[in-house]
Amino acid sequence: MSAHATLIALLHGPDQPGLVARVAGWIFERGGNILHADQHRDREAGIFFQRVEWEPAFAGPTMGEAAPRRPVDLLAAEKEFTEFARSSLGMQVRMLSSADRPKVAIFVSKADHCFHDLALRWKAGDFACDIVAVVGNHPDLAKAAEGYGLSFVHFPVTAETKGAVEAKQLALMRERGVELIVLARYMQVLSADFLEKFGAPVINIHHSFLPAFAGGRPYHQAHARGVKLIGATAHYATRDLDEGPIIHQDVARVTHRHGVEDLVRRGRDLEKSVLAQAVRWHLDGRVLVYGNKTVVFD
Amino acid sequence: MSAHATLIALLHGPDQPGLVARVAGWIFERGGNILHADQHRDREAGIFFQRVEWEPAFAGPTMGEAAPRRPVDLLAAEKEFTEFARSSLGMQVRMLSSADRPKVAIFVSKADHCFHDLALRWKAGDFACDIVAVVGNHPDLAKAAEGYGLSFVHFPVTAETKGAVEAKQLALMRERGVELIVLARYMQVLSADFLEKFGAPVINIHHSFLPAFAGGRPYHQAHARGVKLIGATAHYATRDLDEGPIIHQDVARVTHRHGVEDLVRRGRDLEKSVLAQAVRWHLDGRVLVYGNKTVVFD
Amino acid sequence: MSAHATLIALLHGPDQPGLVARVAGWIFERGGNILHADQHRDREAGIFFQRVEWEPAFAGPTMGEAAPRRPVDLLAAEKEFTEFARSSLGMQVRMLSSADRPKVAIFVSKADHCFHDLALRWKAGDFACDIVAVVGNHPDLAKAAEGYGLSFVHFPVTAETKGAVEAKQLALMRERGVELIVLARYMQVLSADFLEKFGAPVINIHHSFLPAFAGGRPYHQAHARGVKLIGATAHYATRDLDEGPIIHQDVARVTHRHGVEDLVRRGRDLEKSVLAQAVRWHLDGRVLVYGNKTVVFD
Amino acid sequence: MSAHATLIALLHGPDQPGLVARVAGWIFERGGNILHADQHRDREAGIFFQRVEWEPAFAGPTMGEAAPRRPVDLLAAEKEFTEFARSSLGMQVRMLSSADRPKVAIFVSKADHCFHDLALRWKAGDFACDIVAVVGNHPDLAKAAEGYGLSFVHFPVTAETKGAVEAKQLALMRERGVELIVLARYMQVLSADFLEKFGAPVINIHHSFLPAFAGGRPYHQAHARGVKLIGATAHYATRDLDEGPIIHQDVARVTHRHGVEDLVRRGRDLEKSVLAQAVRWHLDGRVLVYGNKTVVFD
Predict the structure, then answer these.
(1) Spatial CA neighbour of D185 closest among D124, D249, D116, D120
(2) Which domains are assigned to chain C?
(3) CA neighbor of D109 nearest in space, from D189, D164, D13
(4) ipTM confidence score
(5) What is the pLDDT of residues D87-144, one digit of tens each?
(6) β-pair type (B180-183, B103-108)
(7) How many CB atoms lie within 10 A of CB C250?
(8) Measured between alpha carbons, how far is C223 from C255 in angstroms, rounded to an integer?
(9) Which has the closest alpha carbon to A145: A178, A180, A183, A118?
(10) Which residues in D have their CB inside 8 Å of a CB on B?
């Protein structure tokens, strides 16, 4: 943790000599101090990826002023670096700051394990965000949400009302300025239309080791196939269900002694830890998406 | 390790009360001593599974003989128990003995890591078997096999000659009394006809976490999908490629930094350990196949 | 899950031929049906260990009665088996039943992660027990406990008052019939005197991979030594701090990037899952203690 | 893999603003291209660590020459960078090149699993080094070494001859230019005097999860304590036995079913993979030692 607010840039684009030096040089020349810089080259694709985090310089006090030193306008620095990365380096860039508190909505159905896990970690200070809404298609978790001081909104969904409900959900997201939706075992598929209109990331937890057992009832599928490990996968939701960029995966060993119910129970621990890790990495600006894959700077 | 030879029975069949007691009672009444007994009930399917290992009683020396005590005829005891399990308990049964040294053939192509691993473990005494043939469709591993004192047989295979070659391979298996074939990264698919005629188990190592990335070039598939874990799966070969009963699986973590070549290299360690563990469990009589699944009594 | 109540016996004692058969026979003769039986022989020590779970027979209705069939008195069956195991087999035995709901107290200090984890699993039905008291030496978790509908009792402890407080804690344990204490990051050492007088199991979670980093501030010790894995250990508390029989352990990978605070944060997940698993195994009658070790029939 | 030889620098020293930029700038100004740069700040200690790998510029052909372009003198570039890092940045620096083939000696006793594993990986091209000697205090592995085309040297050691033998070993190391010794289950402790005179790194594999079970017979210690995981630790040898900087560790799950012999057998797989990984990281210039810890840039 830095005492000062930092800027984080996630860059990617065509590889070319000197990129590391030019980024570092740009920051150094403006009095910034790089705290972390991590880069990756995809040799086959010729793409350069970088996550760089730095403390921008402090603007000194104006002559004669008694005012304390104050941080430079982070938005200005952000804008300036973005312009540099795009124009001079030809990079795509996404920026965030350690001072950010992005607004997050959690979507739930009836299962409560991922929700409690996220809420408790959030209360413990693990997630730098504000949870501005808990959206449920069932009312089951209303009381639990309120117990954490969170706003619960109930949107029942049926096949007939789905379009209309999504419109309302979207309105809520906009009204509350939501920048990230986390699907914490939300048992509805968000339409391609919703995703497009929302325009910000949606993280989903799938209860299998994708691409194995995509689709419904993965623990039943796993049990029927007789696998020796079950898994969970956190990924960004895309219009192609279960096909989005994978952020994190983990597995646990199972045996013939485990019935479907045991897989479900053991899977809950996986789902919790995999989803929480993915959300944390996302909020820390460690996940860069390109194509259908992610680069995770952990 | 027992000082005396043991019998191992793998039983399965319709569940009914008293099975554990009846098996234990039968052995006890004949003076046997149970060393291990492990059972499992599949409640949904109503099937009972058991692995039981015991020391049969010793037949005492005939009066007046100076002969040392000798173990009872294991084959007779085996036959007797099998008859009991089938007729009285209605169970399917497979039996083996700690005195067995099953004859094993290893099939290889060019990759040598699984072959060396199996051969070294075998030399270290980890596998209770005799390796009576190393069969290669390429000659690359001939020298390595001979270095371990193993008989290497080269059977080049082309699309045209495949049927004829399989007939020759089958003849060799019969001639040498092979009871288990281990496909140690053998890059040919054994035909359904071969498997049926061979009539004994064939263990294969697939270099992915099945059912994900079945088929060819699994590391390329895994890299393209951007998964965060790669896997390996040891299974019994069946007529449906990559669909046979899974014996063992394991995974290793990978990141965006790993290109396909890195996945291949890291995967080698997984393939070695997963295949070796599956072969060991099989030889120790710990794997019971039913339907398309396995019960592993580890 | 059986529809009927089951009995579970944990046996250990000197090995002798026929033990499996005699136990199974005894149960079978009384009309019981064995659901699980798992045994282990320690060859070096010559000790036999067994966990056996069975459905005792139903007592039929008395002639002329219209009364429904009712389960045999479980206590009677328990007493009878215990007598058999001790007298006839020379075994030590501990018995429990699937009908039991043991009374559990959770001891806490300020850290809440293990407490929330246990409480949520308990609410989800993972633990077959009643949590009859949450005891804190600090008041911090009072509200959280009450949120789960649990009785919180605050016992401040100082070096001077420790003896007197333990006496009060003990009185509370007796008053509420507590059969298991779980130390969920309770930052006080229970005295040998308390443990002896309590006379029932106490499960503790130590935040290191014991025996490495016993004693205080294990994450600081781990960081100073530069280990590449951190661990957590659940064990029964004994008079020798951190020396009791180990029930469960797990580890997580760390790197030079993790400062002490990161180890603490990552360690929380380990502590939660390791403690919860140990408590579950204990409640399911899967843990047999002998000497300073455990046999876990998982 | 780069088509061209790269330079790798491992730097550490007092943290100061602009270090990343200054290193990157220095390389860029001389026409080099950074392939990887990974840095770490130890906030508490105020130390900066960096691994940077780059392709130095090519010296163009002299006018009129038909000679192909040739790489700049790597030694010169290395010297120049070292001078810069020390004088201008106040850093300690260790340099190597992808063109290096360091000379390695493997020390063995009777156990052969780590030796075979290293030799096979080396033959498969996993290690960029030349194995110039296999030194055994027993003759058991002579034939195995020769089978790989390696020079085996037998130095029997007794308590009385140890000093004299170490002198001979040292002479051999010098004669053959050994830059790294790998102790592949070598059952002798190298004296502080030997380590000092040798003056280059020595990697040892200890068959426990250090600091647990330091000293002799760790599997016996682990079995006696009843731990649920066994481990292996690769570390640099220092004058304090089992206290050197840890490079890599891993663990495997064990149960009450595993006797000491089973721990030994399962431990072999851990020892192999942990030692091989440590050697590989060392050879790739990924391990930076400071104090009694390592920073591993993996």
Answers:
(1) D116
(2) 7-97 (3.30.70.260), 103-296 (3.40.50.170)
(3) D189
(4) 0.90
(5) 999 999 999 999 999 999 999 999 999 999 999 999 999 999 999 999 999 999 999 9
(6) parallel
(7) 21
(8) 10
(9) A118
(10) 112-113, 116, 120, 124, 126, 147, 265, 269, 273
Contact criterion met (CB below 8 Å) for A255 and A263: no
Per-residue pLDDT reduced to its tens digit, C262-292: 999 999 999 999 999 999 999 999 999 998 9
Eight-state DSSP code of residue A225 = H
List the catalytic residue out of D15, D242, D284, D298: D242
For residue B60, name the pLDDT band (cuts at 50, 70, 90).
Answer: very low
Q: Tell me which chain A residue has its CA closest to the CA of residue C126.
A: A265
Contact at 8 Å (CB) between D225 and C211? yes
Comparing CA positions, the residue from D294, D277, D295, D37 lying closest to residue B253 is D277
pTM of the model: 0.93
In contact, A194 and A173? CB cutoff 8 Å: no
Chains that touch A (3 or more CB pairs under 8 A): B, C, D
Task: Residue B208: name the closest of B224, B194, B195 by CA.
Answer: B224
CB D247 within 8 A of CB D236: yes
**Residues of chain A in Cβ contact (below 8 Å) with chain D:** 17-22, 24-25, 27-28, 33-39, 41
Given an 8 Å threshold on Cβ–Cβ distance, is D249 in contact with C227? yes
Residue D273 has pLDDT above 70, yes or no: yes
A199: its two tokens: 């325009």
Backbone angles phi, psi at B232, to 5 degrees: -145, 150
Cα gap C43→D213, rounded to integer Å:
24
The structure tokens listed for D160 are 């009385």
What's the rounded Cα separation, in Å, for the pair A156 and A135?
Answer: 10
pLDDT in tens, A36-52: 899 988 888 899 999 99
pLDDT tens readout for residues A200-240: 999 999 999 999 999 889 999 999 999 999 999 999 999 98
Helices A113-123, C113-123: crossing angle, 10 deg rounding: 160
